[in-house]
Specification:
mainly alpha, single chain, 6 helices
Length: about 130
């Protein structure tokens, strides 16, 4: 589902609820990624966000597009290292949403807000880390 100003909060909530209710083949709950893991992903996103906000033009410059592409690689790397992060990346559609950004400033801002919503719902529904 493509993110929009009208749906990104609901999409984030639904994704976290689905993650929280996932079971493995034996019916055991799958561990939700930790608060620090999701906050690290948000920190990478926020670093670019701060630069994007200062841009006057609507089209992202090549340097920022390159950083967004690298962000995608970092998400893939973290997903490969930790199964809980992989489930998070898959259920939230993060990679698809990064692809939707292209060189559009507003799409990046929307993606960043989506990440913030995911962190908020992870904390709200996930409670304390085990």
């Amino acid at each position: 589902m493509r993110l929009s100003e009208a749906n990104y909060v609901d999409v984030a909530e639904k994704s976290i609820i689905e993650l929280k209710t996932l079971k493995d083949k034996k019916g055991k709950s799958i561990k939700l990624l930790s608060t620090s893991q999701i906050r690290n992903l948000l920190a990478m996103t926020a670093d670019i966000y701060n630069d994007v906000l200062n841009l006057r033009e609507e089209k992202l410059p090549e340097e920022i597009v390159g950083r967004v592409n690298y962000l995608k690689i970092r998400f893939l790397y973290e997903a490969g290292r930790e199964p809980a992060v992989k489930k998070f990346v898959e259920k939230t559609g993060i990679l698809d949403h990064i692809n939707e950004i292209g060189d559009n400033k507003n799409q990046y801002i929307l993606f960043s807000r989506y990440m913030e919503a995911l962190v908020a719902y992870r904390k709200y529904y996930g409670g304390k880390d085990e």
